[in-house]
Write a structure and sequence with these properties.
globular, single chain, 3-stranded antiparallel β-sheet, Hypothetical Cytosolic Protein, Chain: A
Length: 91
């Protein structure tokens, strides 16, 4: 049987390439909202980040997530992403 190739994506925080299913997709919707895409298939521009708070803090400090999504991200959105990461880790 043929094995499927697993897509690789780069984390915007630590810049490491990992399997797509190991990362969390942050999405900018066509309405310019920034949300966490749990399914990984929603329409919009996406950026990937490791499910660790350290990578999120690094991406926030260097504004890497904002550059990747081409939008200024407010502090409330970073807090929401961090809360969802903690839920994901506890999950």
């Amino acid at each position: 049987m043929k094995t499927r190739k697993i897509p690789m994506r780069k984390c915007v925080g630590c810049q490491e390439s990992k399997n797509k299913n190991e990362l969390i997709r942050i999405l900018k919707t066509p309405e310019d909202d920034v949300i966490v895409d749990g399914s990984g298939k929603m329409n919009g521009r996406g950026a990937y980040i490791c499910p660790s708070v350290e990578c999120l803090k690094k991406a926030q400090k260097t504004k890497a997530l904002s550059r990747s999504l081409n939008i200024m991200i407010p502090e409330e959105v970073y807090a929401d992403i961090e809360r969802k990461m903690l839920e994901f880790e506890a999950g």
